[in-house]
Write a structure and sequence with these properties.
about 220 residues; about 15% strand; 7 helices; 6 strands; alpha/beta
Length: about 220
Amino acid sequence: MAFNYTIDDIDRLDSPALVIYPELVRHNIDLAIRMIGDVDRLRPHVKTHKSAEATRLMLDAGIRKFKCATIAEAEMLGMCGAPDVLLAYQPVGPKVQRFIAVIEKCPATQFSCLTDDLSAAQAMAAAFAERVPVYIDLNIGQNRTGITPEAAFDLYAACAAMNGIRPVGLQAYDGHIRSTDLKVRKAACNAAFARVTSLKDELVEAGHPEPVIVAGGSPT
């Protein structure tokens, strides 16, 4: 698909200026939907564009689930009317109250967040008035955040017993898997994801509802 990058009113623009080509954005959104095969499987991260305008284009295309990196991005998504927003970090300290304020400000949005630590989960559970959905953040090799899948069962079970939070799933971000060789990248992805699947099966066998899995960086 060819695009015309001409700016008709360039003489009116100061520099530097942010220039967006909506047709190209819509094309990329449609391509993502075609690649995944089912729009309901998509949960795009807004940390790159941080834009209400781009979010609305995604909503117009039928995308209903989003991820974000900050409380401000979560608020932006709520104000756009996004139905399902996952804060892909663990709110601690003052950010817990900021997250609660956004939840209260945007009641039409189902907000959720991550946890990978028992004390942080307990603090959230004590602060939340209702059982906010949480995903256990799994470390499957990037070694940046999260708990290893082999150690996550007890944390999931502990969260299930708390009043203020409700574990609903697992997040497994594999951003470290970036080999340019497709076979190598696929093998590494499958090995990492097998640990997630094993934990999911263990949780189901123990009587927990089947957890929702949020996974996949762009290369995988």
